[in-house]
């Protein structure tokens, strides 16, 4: 079992639910929608421009997330591995307005990006994408997808996306994964 699967399994046990891994949402794709311009001062559009997204070259694909938590949680769940804390992600997090409802600690995520962006930026550094055709393009694409996952669900009847991250889960409290996930649930899952 890899780290992601372990996190999902423990989270499901703590919450007493089975996440839906293949739940389809028609808005959870890497496309721009007219409604996106209305959300949080056009946060998605501003992020796309800042990250140099070439929309005309984007192939429509589903944006990956780790599961949908049904019932009273009614939210997407994302496990953020170490490579998600890139300089691109920090740029987008710095655009988040105070009014944006989140199920994770924004200041913690900014701090983790500051500390770990050099490592994250080196991960798949040479991988470019058709719609992010430059060195670091894979990281920029992940950062834009994360913005979409943070903004769109709350405008489509879901609660804010719940995020757990590698550093809080595996490096705090002597690596007591179950305890760390439980603490994150208590702190952030609203």
DSSP strand count: 3
Strand line-up of the largest beta sheet: 1-2-3
What general form does the structure show?
globular
- Spell out the helices and strands N to C: HHEEHHHEHH
Which value, in Å, is the CA radius of gyration?
A: 16 Å
Q: What is the oligomer described by this structure? A: single chain
Q: Sheet with the most strands?
A: 3 strands, mixed
Spans where pLDDT lies below 50 across 5 or more residues: none
Q: Given the structure, what is the number of helices?
A: 7
The overall average pLDDT, rounded, is 90
Please state the structural category: mainly alpha
In helices, the fraction of residues equals 40-55%
β-sheet strand percentage: 5-15%
Q: How far is the N terminus from the C terminus?
A: 28 Å
Task: Output the keywords.
mainly alpha, 3 strands, 190 residues, 3-stranded mixed sheet
Write up this protein.
With 190 residues, the chain is mostly helical. Helix content is 41%, strand content 7%. Helix 1 (3-15) packs across helix 7 (177-188) and helix 3 (87-93) runs parallel beside helix 5 (137-151). It is globular, with a radius of gyration of 16 Å. The two termini are 28 Å apart. The model has no long low-confidence stretch (mean pLDDT 90).
Question: Quick gist of this model?
Answer:
With 190 residues, the chain is mainly alpha-helical. It has helices at 3-15, 43-50, 87-93, 106-122, 137-151, 166-170, 177-188, and strands at 67-69, 75-80, 162-165.
């Amino acid at each position: 079992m890899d780290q992601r699967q372990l996190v999902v399994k423990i989270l499901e046990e703590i919450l007493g639910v089975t996440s839906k891994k293949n739940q389809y949402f028609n808005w959870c794709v890497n496309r721009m929608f007219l409604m996106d311009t209305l959300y949080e001062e056009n946060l998605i559009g501003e992020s796309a421009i800042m990250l140099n997204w070439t929309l005309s070259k984007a192939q429509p694909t589903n944006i990956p997330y780790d599961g949908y938590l049904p019932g009273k949680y009614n939210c997407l769940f994302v496990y953020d591995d170490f490579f998600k804390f890139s300089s691109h992600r920090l740029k987008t997090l710095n655009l988040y307005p105070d009014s944006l409802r989140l199920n994770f600690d924004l200041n913690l995520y900014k701090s983790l990006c500051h500390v770990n962006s050099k490592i994250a930026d080196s991960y798949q550094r040479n991988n470019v994408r058709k719609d992010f055709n430059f060195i670091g393009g894979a990281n920029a694409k992940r950062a834009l997808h994360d913005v979409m996952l943070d903004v769109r669900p709350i405008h489509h009847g879901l609660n804010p996306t719940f995020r757990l991250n590698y550093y809080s889960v595996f490096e705090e409290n002597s690596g007591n994964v179950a305890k760390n996930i439980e603490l994150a649930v208590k702190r952030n899952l609203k």
